[in-house]
Amino acid sequence: MQTHRFSIALILFTAPYLILACASDPPPAGVDIWNDPPAPSAAPDGSPVAIHGQLNVVGTQLVDQTGAPVQLKGVSSTWLNWESTPFAESEPGLAYMRDNWKLSVIRAAMGADQSVGGYLASPTTMQAKVDKIVQHALDLGVYVLVDWHTEQAVTEQADAVAFFAAMATKYGAYPNVIWEPYNEPNPYTWAAIKPYHEAVVAAIRAVDPDNLIVLGTPNWSQNVDEAALDPVAGTNLLYTLHFYSCSHRQSLRNKGDTAIAAGLPIFVTEFGATFSDGGLAPNHNYVCEDEANLWFAWMAQNNISGVAWKLDQCSDSSCILSPRAPQDGPWPDNVLSTDAGGALSGAGIQGGHGLFVVNWIRP
């Protein structure tokens, strides 16, 4: 969102601990060598992970364990450092979304910056929130994006490397987990962003050889065409494109087309049927369904997965839940935000995009 706010498993997990224990230097910040990772277990029958298993990137396509194309659909938390109610940390809520919305992926948007009370200011608190979301996703067989949510990650590289190395050590054996090292780079060029990605990718791949990694792109994750000219080397890498349909239209889809034609796989890790500020009241709390439907058609045509911003209740038109929604669900249609009539041509009408987004998630 554009705003100034903002057995194999045993070997895989044991080897990094042995290396750290024998090294003369202390482990990186955030790595607890005594914290054993959870033992991998099978996803529940019929869950998205049970059906699709380990995801892979083949060319520009995301495919499942059978090699069939797969399009994940889901929602993002709000900034975990700013949430008023922990909707995203609710296991009953996630189960309801999986079973009734047919959600297949949830995003843990962990604010990183110290200045906004994120992970760099409160690592224990933020870590606990992310761990809870990830653990519930593992238990319920849902895919989960772990998002270093900031515009400034190039200045936080050492901390991000330590965080993702620790998380990959803990959760890398699970096919559920998708790494998102950089939400919306700005104002940095791809030449500045790429070395950051290379460092984080290397740290993840040292312990997790195959889970998806989605790489942020310049200009609030819009300039995927720039990344396509000089992509990061590696496997199972995708690139982030974010859109908000009241602000971003055909010209941004053209950038996506250019990137895809160059061979770049894309994942929309954040979108809204709103303005790019998330639909702030009183001037921007609109829903632009017509343009969002053009985006949905483009994503379906190119088999691109998407995650809607945001699982929260507020006056922003991007808040999916209405004030009537209970913390732990259930979240039927009558507690979702709605524009109460669909979009008009042009800007749209005031309201929230919750019901519209959930109707897109449903098959």
Question: Span between N and C termini?
Answer: 26 Å
Low-confidence stretches: 3-34, 341-348
Structural class: alpha/beta
**What shape does the CA trace take?**
globular
> Please, what is the average pLDDT?
89
Q: Per CATH, what is the topology? A: TIM Barrel
Tell me which CATH architecture applies here. Alpha-Beta Barrel
Helical percent range? 25-40%
How many E strands? 13
CATH class: Alpha Beta
Sequence of secondary-structure elements: HHEEEHEHEHEHEHHEEHEEHEEH
The biggest beta sheet, please? Answer: 9 strands, parallel
CATH H-tier superfamily: Glycosidases
Helix tally?
Answer: 11
What fraction strand?
15-25%
* Integer tally of domains: 1
Radius of gyration: 19 Å
3D structure, described in words:
This protein is 34% helix and 15% strand. The protein is an alpha/beta fold. It has a single domain (54-361), classed as Glycosidases (TIM Barrel, Alpha-Beta Barrel). Strands 3, 4, 5, 6, 7, 8, 9, 10 and 12 form a 9-stranded parallel β-sheet that branches. It has a two-stranded antiparallel sheet with strand order 1-2. It starts with 8 loop residues before the first helix and ends with a helix.
Concise synopsis of the structure shown:
By secondary structure, the protein is an alpha/beta fold.
What key attributes describe this structure?
globular, 15% strand, nine-stranded parallel β-sheet, TIM Barrel, 11 helices, 363 residues, alpha/beta, disordered N terminus, two-stranded antiparallel ribbon
Itemize the secondary structure elements and their pairings.
Blueprint (H helix, E strand, L loop, with lengths): L8 H14 L25 H5 L3 E3 L2 E3 L9 E5 L13 H11 L3 E7 L11 H18 L2 E7 L7 H15 L5 E4 L9 H16 L7 E3 L2 H4 L2 H5 L8 E4 L2 E2 L5 H12 L4 E7 L13 E2 L1 H14 L3 E6 L37 E2 L3 H8 L2
Helix pairs in contact: 3-4, 5-6
